[in-house]
Amino acid sequence: MTGDSSRPSSAHAPHPAWLPDDAFAAIGSRRVVVAGDGALAGTVAEEVAAATARFGGSFSRLEVGDGVSDADLVLTLSPPVPTSGGPDESFRLTREAGAVVVQAACDAGLLHGFFHLVRLGDDAFDGPDTDETHAPATDLRMLDHWDNVDVHPTMGQVERGYSGGSIFYDDGVVHADLSRVERYARLLAAVGINRVAINNVNVHAREARLLTDDLGDVVRVAAVFRRWGIRVHLSVSFASPMTLGGLDTSDPLDQGVAHWWVRAAARAWDAIPDFGGFVVKADSEGQPGPFAYGRTHADGANMLAAAVEPYDGLVHWRAFVYDHKQDWRDRSTDRARAAYDHFRPLDGTFSDNVVLQVKYGPMDFQVREPLNPLLAAMPHTRVALELQVTQEYTGQQRHAVYLGPQWSQILGFRFWDSAGRAGGSPSVADLATGRGKAVEDPGTGTWRKPAGGFAAVSNVGDDEFWTGHPFAQANLYAYGRLCWDPTLDPGAVLDEWVGLTFPGAPDVVGQALHAVLDRSWETYELYTAPLGVGFMVRPGHHYGPDVDGYEYTPWGTYHFADRDGIGVDRTVGTGTGYAGQYPAPWSATYESPTSCPDELLLFFHHVPYTHVLHSGKTVVQHIYDTHFDGVERVEQMIAVWSEVSALMDPRVSERVSERLAEQLRSATEWRDQVNTYFFRKSGIPDERGRTIY
């Protein structure tokens, strides 16, 4: 079903983000040849034709790479090398005497090579001769949209969306005009994203029909993304055979249920030959799943996997499964344990086309969590690392918080090295991509991890700036770039984004934006929940401070602060045993408060307020100091921004200034509520005599 939803979503055309016209000047001012056939080669040719027409260069399109000796740039397809798995998205870049050739085995690689040149600008054609090959770290680089077709009465058009309405849907219908989706697909292609799930993992009745009655609308959306090398996936409800098919069960071992899914998959791939597959949230926060029938999650996932296997389809099965109706009085129940407890026993039982999608931390996208031990506990399962680009717990795109440094730390962490980043064992990125030999598994000897890839919750909406806060565009950009190469320096990626998004701006602008954003994740952590304890947010919408907000709820997100101390005992010796889910040496490191890193102390231990951290400060003084420091840092961010804001586009300047003012207000509220709470709990004054209420 479609409707007349072509009305503009804002007063202005969408901001070009990191693809303004001037980003194409280096290519557009030169003699360019695109040689070879294929749909994405055609997309590249259209981009080159537009750039050369705009900047005075010349463009030729050839079927083969003949007659190109006088070109400054040749983008050409070479004979493909047979490979297993997905298409070869790599490309080879050579430069000789300033002339550049990009060769790729398939047109997806040609598209990636083209956007690599866009990022380089004039540097692509300058410098010494070179011959280099670029390839993505993994074939699976995915974004999950939490968009609802209908406006949900509680969560709205986009669940956890902080950028306006959906770019796909408008109150019950798919937009008739998908031109904005086209612009979005182009942005994603430019940073290497190749898969998108277009509806909420919490699949409501209306959204479930995308798989059946409204599959024609998915066909339209998929056609837009296809031009940019991106495959579309759908989130599906495990109960669909009942809610859509009229069956009386969704038992994964029931033959009628299995046949319903076989027919549903056949219809999907018949309509969309490059359909990607299904995303499933089951037995989680009220969503139906196999537990209702006494079955395991492997039973459920494998039944779906069999249905999509003939089409090279995937099932992304989320591991976010926990009891959300806990008794807060019961300290033996620990939400952090849940994913490991549910899924570790199932390792080796999932089908090859099932990807277990695991959040980076055991709780829920907090500003600071230990890495999820399940990432290290599934040697025979394809595991995708799940991140959250939308800033649910990191300021909701009202605060300027660049998450690249957080993600880089996560990707580089090594579970089997005492320093976490020493390099002797596989990193989290290696475990997700299957790129490095993993550790010895006592049961089978050495193993090579099967690749699962990356997935994240998208942060765009129909806001003029895509992401509400113009600076939140940097997170979407960084996610794509780190998926392609997890070893990239997040500071350099930030500078890439600045240079592309604001081309021609004075150097002082780039320096200011780097200064505002580079340490902003650390700044947010300073003025919010301390020492890894997490949450302390207002229940429901999760914005702003509420120290006891979840302390007596069924959700299992507690800090256990009393007059004597704070923190959750997750040790094996005296607590919930969660620390024992880690391999050595981290299980021992987290078990003891003397070796546990300060930034995670309260996640693993209940300690007195007078406990002395490795920094030499007591816990309570650390809380006071960091919260005052965090507000001061936001004030410094505003001061830096004010020096260059007049040099920016007035609309960007106005939006950023408004958001920074809100960030300062919110940070001040965080500081005053958290400090007051712990002063009243502990009775210990601030040794520096600052105002605490």
UniProtKB/TrEMBL annotation:
<keyword id="KW-0378">Hydrolase</keyword>
<feature type="domain" description="Glycosyl hydrolase family 67 catalytic">
    <location>
        <begin position="131"/>
        <end position="466"/>
    </location>
</feature>
<dbReference type="InterPro" id="IPR017853">
    <property type="entry name" value="GH"/>
</dbReference>
<dbReference type="InterPro" id="IPR011100">
    <property type="entry name" value="Glyco_hydro_67_cat"/>
</dbReference>
<dbReference type="Pfam" id="PF07477">
    <property type="entry name" value="Glyco_hydro_67C"/>
</dbReference>
<feature type="domain" description="Glycosyl hydrolase family 67 C-terminal">
    <location>
        <begin position="467"/>
        <end position="690"/>
    </location>
</feature>
<dbReference type="InterPro" id="IPR037054">
    <property type="entry name" value="A-glucoronidase_C_sf"/>
</dbReference>
<dbReference type="InterPro" id="IPR029018">
    <property type="entry name" value="Hex-like_dom2"/>
</dbReference>
<protein>
    <submittedName>
        <fullName>Alpha-glucuronidase</fullName>
    </submittedName>
</protein>
<feature type="region of interest" description="Disordered">
    <location>
        <begin position="426"/>
        <end position="445"/>
    </location>
</feature>
<dbReference type="InterPro" id="IPR011099">
    <property type="entry name" value="Glyco_hydro_67_C"/>
</dbReference>
<dbReference type="Pfam" id="PF07488">
    <property type="entry name" value="Glyco_hydro_67M"/>
</dbReference>
